[in-house]
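To: structure subgroup
Subject: Chain for Friday's discussion

All,

I'm putting the inputs and outputs inline so they're searchable in the archive.
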Amino acid sequence: MFGTFAIFSNDLAIDLGTANTCVFARGQGIVLSEPSIVAFNRISDKIEAVGTEAKAMVGRTPGSITAIKPMRDGVIADFDAAEKMLGYFIKKAHGRRRFVRPRVVIGVPSQITQVERRAVKDSAYRAKASEVHLIEEGMAAAIGAGMPITEASGNMIVDIGGGTTDIAVISLAGVVYSRSVRVAGNSMDEAISNYVKREKDLLIGERTAEIVKMELGSASPLPMRREMEVKGRHVLAGKPVTVVLNDEEIREALADPVRQIVAAVRAALEQTPPELSADICDRGIVLSGGGALLRNMDERIRAETGVPVFVAEDPLSSVVLGAGKMLSDFNLLRKISLD
């Protein structure tokens, strides 16, 4: 996959997500998309696995191995683990060639603090980046979704990731309004786990909750009933049991996180200048991120706002594709970077 990469630039764009990390190499496109997880051996203090291999270990590790998620709510929660994970992904994206010091563009949540920005930059520099540029995830997602951000008209993007939902209104390559709410895909998984524990007396792991969300999750009623069997541990008896869940139950479980996301979108529309609001009414709202794939999420937002809503062509990759386009347009990058 990386054999011809040597003839291209070393520059990389990274969507350092709470759930997944995507890497875009200039001239190559997306070269890596793996879970943001690191498995550490606490006895030897060495990394056992990163990404996909580490995710397979979640909930199944012996006492000596710990699976860590370095990112929480879109920002670095474990500095050392994030640095090691970034270094691993950068090396892997370059076919494990040594002595490569790429320029890196990283998408971050819009309401990231100065301290959190510094943590992201320091991790990238320690992972051997030569230059690091940070851009807002909302802006990157809008560029990746092909929205005309440089025009004098309003463009609204809602990027529902793993840790945060980033909402941005963009005009003339500038962010007119931006907000980041720490409710997104992970909050939905947690809501499902809590519901199943409360209503079914069943304990399920993160991976199972995510599978249930993908199979049964929806933001408004579905035309046909959906069901699935879910295995876990009974809260009181402590033994493995199987229960049947349906889409209506999971919709009830997801009601609060979905309501919070919709409320944030409505608040953004209320605070958008009138001229730009008129443009958004004409052009609609674009959804990106993994949360955009929740069934009927677009319909729910459309019903509650009265504005047309569209899902980006490749919602999971919008941020990294947008950041990747910046590698070829440093004039625009200078305008929109957070430096």
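Points worth raising on Friday:
The radius of gyration is 20 Å.
Residues 247-270 form the longest helix (24 residues).

D.
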